[in-house]
Specification:
Elements (H helix, E strand, L loop, with lengths): L12 H17 L31 E6 L5 E3 L2 E3 L1 H12 L9 E2 L2 E2 L11 E6 L5 H27 L8 H10 L4 E5 L2
Parallel strand pairs: 1-6, 6-7
Antiparallel strand pairs: 1-2, 2-3, 4-5
Helix pairs in contact: 2-3, 3-4
Length: about 180
């Protein structure tokens, strides 16, 4: 007589438990990166009926352009990322001083009248790499941080971290971070 063997069965009741434990394990051990972005304060909206357009003297605008070849141009002259911070500082902080013809490659007679009037116009081509755009933003941020740190030392004899809220506000008023961003066609 032939005996028939039945196929072995797997207890599927514990499979759900194992899948659940694996899911929890991967959720706990996986790190999820988050994009931090660039911290910027957007300008306020123009109230209806009010003319919010202001004329800015050409002397007070530092034009920084990034082209499709990932080259940086300051006022139509190609420069490197390593020179950008110093050129921005020279432009912002010269107070209309034209005592030298060239300072770090920037004509000071074409530089801003005052740090409160200095505007950095940043234009990027649609094919400019994101990496270059972020590096330029970082260099401009470093330039303003250096100028604000120096101002805090000379005015208050303190570091930026040691300033009170009121003193920090005065530093930001003395060196406002004014950047105009646009994309070239």
């Amino acid at each position: 007589m032939k005996t028939r063997r039945s196929a072995q069965t797997v207890n599927s009741g514990s499979m759900a438990d194992i899948a659940f434990l694996l899911l929890i394990f991967f959720l706990v051990t996986t790190t999820i990166s988050s994009d931090t972005g660039i911290n910027r304060k957007l300008p306020r909206l123009c109230p209806p009926g009010e003319n919010c357009n202001i004329d800015i003297h050409e002397r007070n605008i530092l034009r920084i352009q990034m082209n499709a070849k990932n080259e940086i141009m300051i006022n139509e002259k190609i420069t490197s990322i390593s020179n950008l911070k110093q050129q921005a500082k020279d432009f912002i902080d010269n107070n209309g001083d034209s005592s030298c013809d060239y300072c770090h490659g920037l004509k000071l007679k074409d530089a801003s009248d005052n740090p409160t009037k200095a505007v950095v116009s940043l234009q990027s081509h649609p094919l400019t790499s994101y990496d270059l755009f972020i590096k330029v933003q970082d260099e401009l941020t470093k330039a303003y941080l250096d100028l604000r740190t120096q101002y805090a030392r000379t005015r208050f004899n303190k570091t930026i971290d040691d300033l009170t809220k009121e003193e920090l506000q005065l530093v930001k008023i003395a060196y406002p971070f004014i950047i105009s961003e646009a994309q070239t066609k």
